[in-house]
Protein 1
Amino acid sequence: MLPTPDYSHLSSKDFEDVYEPAEDTFILLDALEQDAHFLRERKPKICLEIGSGSGVVSAFVSSILGGSSALYLATDINQHASQCTLRTARQNKIQIDPLTAHLSDPFSPRLENQVDILIFNPPYVPTPKDEAITGQGTITGAWAGGQDGMSITDVLLSKVQTLLSNTGVFYLVAIKQNDVPAIQRRMLEHFSLNSEVVLQRRAGREHLFVIKFDKA
Amino acid sequence: MVRLITHNLLACHAKNCTSNNFPLQFKDIEIELREAEFNPDFIRGFLPKLEWKALIDAAKQLGDTSLPSEQPEMIDDEFLKNLHHVLLEIHIEEGAMICPNCQHVYPISNGIPNMLLAEHEIG
């Protein structure tokens, strides 16, 4: 079993502004670990995590693949989160290139058809629509997902097909209220992306899912 | 952090800025060199993804002239090591990146570029 990356350098002060790793983070790590062999086989060169927060997910992928075998890019709309991601990289003696950015915006068009592993643990909690918009860049933005919890996720979903390389995979965290079957159906119909639920579990009030998409 | 490998993938995405928006130009930068583990397979695999001229120009701007102006046909170890250094070991800590087209300024602070746009600049 791979250890969770060290984030002991982050304090409760950091977690006032940046999402603290929680059940949704850990189910994503578990899903990635379960796929470790599959991921190594694909020999990924470019990994892009959207909304990297504390940075533990990208750090974990680096420990699966080996730090020097891929480029780890991480965006977050919250600059405190970008700082935490960088600190987590240094704490774990790996290289992650964090950027403060909206989703994958600054990588267009250069990353078209180039991303081998794309990861998004989005703000998925259903809230009034305004909250997802006004919360962007703050701790509220780390969880407030607007209508059906899909306001932010939907924007990224429309770009996934363009970003993924031919052998690329996309991991998305969702909860039951996001309507997982509808997400899968939409991605197949609109973008010809296949998907499967690779892990699901109940954690407190949340029924969490990790969905994996690819072009196969 | 901004390394030249990442810089080579970034373009300006401000509203209506769709041509001549790559590569971003460095301004008033401070750099730090940090050693990274050399993985020739990774460097070789990344070669076809690079915009070579943009990389060479950026490296020159940072004072590194170790790479040839055209990608060589013969890939030897010395070339891969130079490329490794240019792509992965030069860290831009402070300064800014500027769009050659619309002059939008993307600041870099504590090693992190801020690529966010204001509301009215979003396309």
Protein 2
Amino acid sequence: MWKWLHPYANPEVSYHFTNKLLPWLSALTAIFLSIGLVWALLFAPADYQQGHSFRIFYIHVPAASLSMGIYVAMAIAAFISLVWQLKLADASAAAMAPVGAAFTAIALITGAAWGKPMWGTWWIWDARLTSELILLFLYLGVIALHNAFEDKNLAGKAAGILTLVGVVNIPIIKYSVEWWNTLHQGSTVSKLGKPSMSLDMLWPFIFCFIGFALLVAVIICLRFRNEILARNSIRPWVRELIQKNTVNNT
Amino acid sequence: MTLKAQSTQETENLTATIDNSMIGDTAQSSQQLSYRHAFMLVLKRDLTIAMRHKDDIINPLLFFVIVVTLFPLGIGPEAQTLSRIAPGIIWVAALLATLLSLDRLFKSDHLDGSLEQMLLSPHPIFILVLAKIFAHWLITGLPLILIAPLLAVLLHLNEQSYTALLLTLLLGTPVLSLLGAVGVALTVGIKKGGVLLSLLVLPLYIPVLIFATSAIDTAALGLPYSGQLAIIAALFFGSLTLAPFAVGAALKVSTN
């Protein structure tokens, strides 16, 4: 496996690999998201209690779970870059942080919009809301620390250490906040067991979830590509690439 | 200027002593003694420096007292309201006071170069960092604990919760110093690290705040609060064992 993985540590190889990956990922994203969102927003049955306002669920839940998933992915990348000193892992962690922050913000905003008709208030100091808010703070801290260093290699290392400290702390914060106060409804899409929602609501959710996950992958690939170019801007292959592109365009 | 020279000289003494002790150690005594020796040396150096800048000890303490006095002025002097929010006020003020004092932990050492000397010394960074954090707690955490009962009186804290307040502060403030050290170590090389530091560290302080205030509230109701105390103790031992490693790694990044 190492033999197979090892060429991708070269920035040029992984740049071209990402390039090849992107059209496929974008096409899949378009298919899944259009099917999922149209199905979810127009054809899925309305909830017997919450009416049509429950449809925001199809954006809220994928965004919330992806916000946590991206953090874990970022922590894994940070760990790899600290232990094996892979610079590309650094670049990918840097590519992921703003995406994760954006999805955390989406989850919070859609949650507030859902909370207003259901709970009668935009914001409650409830366990899940609070821990999501803290997750947003952690993301913003990582991004701010990354921006504070001029040297990108140092920035990656420092942000990586903070990400790892955060990953140790997230479960602690989550449970502390949960014991402190809770109101948020329980999970409806219990992953492997029997889901507590009907199938014609669940299928569009699965499409939406996969669609959003792919969307995250596309955005991260785009940002990762830019990170590689920015970090290797003095290398000859980047120059050649840019010259080729400008010739093609003119 | 003289103070700076003084602290560099002390560090030189320290490194010289460490070198001497290393030579002595390889010749005769056990490794364990030298760890303790290094720990005590760093601790003594930091305490001496702190004793010579007394305002560094007094200012965070004054800040703590002033922040706590602001709340009754802002909220109103009703004893009932105050006693209800007293645990929260005292703990939030303690968090902020610790945050203010954190900067001193590595900043001056970084500026005069003694931090790099320390990182270059043959002793494990874990021990040296732990000594520095312990010194920081002795300088800022301990006075906070000593003055807290007085503020609790001013805020009409329920009489049953005094023990809980002291115990949570005793277990909780070291956690604040340990976690804060990670943040300082990450930002010590940055010019304007102060605001960034609070952004990094405050989210990590949340569990301590939640369990400490909940323990004090439970104590006010006359119920057992050993569960919350056990969790704060767990946080303490967890950060005691893990945070110095993170601080060491972060210092290596910061000093480059």
